[in-house]
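Note to self: the last two entries modelled the partners one at a time, which told us nothing about the interface. This time every component goes in together.
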Amino acid sequence: MGEYFMVVLLDDQRMSKIRGTGLEEHIKYMFGGELRLLEVKVSEELKDKILQEFDTARVDSRGAITDVPVAFMRELFNQVAEKKSLGSDVVEAVLAKVDEIKKAAEKESEYLPPPEIE
Amino acid sequence: MSRFLIQRPLPHGGRLVERVITDKEAAKKMIKGCPSYDIKPTLHYETGVPVRNVYREIMSICYGFFSPVEGSMKQAEVERILKERRLLNEWIFPYPLVFDISEEDYKQLGVGPGDRLVLNLKGKPFAILDIEEVWRIDNPEELAHLTFGTPERNPEVVREPFNKKHPGWVIYRSLQPVVLAGKYTIINEPKFRSPFDRFWYPPRKSREEFDRRGWRTVINHQTRNVPHVGHEFLMKCAAFTGDVEPCHGILVNAVIGVKRRGDYPDEAIVEGHEAVNKGGYIKPERHLPTIVLWDMRYGNPLESLLHGIIRQNMGCTHHMFGRDHAAVGEYYDKWATQILWTKGIPSYGFPAPPTDVPYGLDIRPQNMREFSYCPTCKEMAYSETCGHKREKLSGSFLRGMVAEGVQPPSIIMRPEVYKVIVKWWKHFGYPFCNEKYVVNKEKELEVDLEDL
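The predicted structure of the combined assembly is written out below.
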């Protein structure tokens, strides 16, 4: 079956947390260098588990798993930084906290603070 | 005049269905002494969440979007659609459309063939249903499977059995058992609330608007999404089809109805498309965002057939179709819609494309692949012409970025469009459709009604 992945977007704050971890060499640049990101590998089995646990989750045309709660994405970055890894172990560690994530997601399904833009 | 010029097609079925009474006094006389029924949303058979409101179908039928359909279908018509995707008058049509009520409501109403039933919406008379037949849906699960197909029966395009994760399947699975079949007539025109009011161009009005703008050829862009730059390029480049010159107009027709959680709110979708022309990325003179009311069935090739019907009725000469057209999950082949429009799908009753069968469509398909960002060309590039490795654009990826509070680079989403997203995010406290949005929307709907 196909390969799946999840994208971790990197802003300046996140960049400071992975500096010196060896992950920097895996940073990908998209859209003319305007976006920095890391890709975390996801096995077929873990992909199915994510889709089962989060009914908004979907697999996009690139094989990326998207539309999971923001809490999931935050934890995904935390685990990447902690484990200094981009392998399936990262997603396994996130899924080990699924109840905690779902609890946080319940609140964020009601409200997400909008960004302040001009 | 060049013999290559393309003329605007007639409505599907040969004439526009228009079943709207605008004379209030006449309407009052029509409903005098008739029993009435408050339209109820169809609720998910397990969760109780609204999944459909038949008022949207009544609107789309009576204003002609679904011509030549005139009402809630009789049993023989539904059976024929499920077998051959044809109405009893031979014209092709993809889906059963019925007015369904519970046994309890049916007993309480005490109506039957020959009766006129007044349908109330938001407590006001809205439409009438002249009942011609009463029939029952014995097995809604079977109806749902027959509506969409199965991998065994439709091996050309169905890849997985449909189930409760498919929103369209859920709609049919959740129907009530008693069907009142007959023609609808709107007797009290609803008024659209802002922002939907300025995007309401039912077929007669859209055809008049095309005339006013001098649009002979018009290509439709189907949408249920806020536009990213990939969509914008799809529209711009697909419009280069046409006849002796590119299409005069690009009609954006947004499907407005019950949405999946995670989709953008309808308000952001329509204003997002408007922002594309307000920002000048496509000239307003060439671009017209509009709406149609319909609770999406996500039937990929079947949905594309309905889209072809709607847009031909609106007066379009061309319709663009892409990958995973009106799809959800992996139930269908990614290119099922393009297979239908290029070769046909015999198991659905189409041994040839819907434009090449008797009583078929005249709208021309423009089957498109994808646009994505090419770092070598340093621009949005078409998958079939750019020879470089490109960075795919995906709506889901963008949604993730938005949810995390990261403004997408302007090369993939125009800042004007992002501002629209944030405007409605502030309004609803959330950038996407959530349970609260869906429940509130189904209470408020898109329209209000005056007293009759």
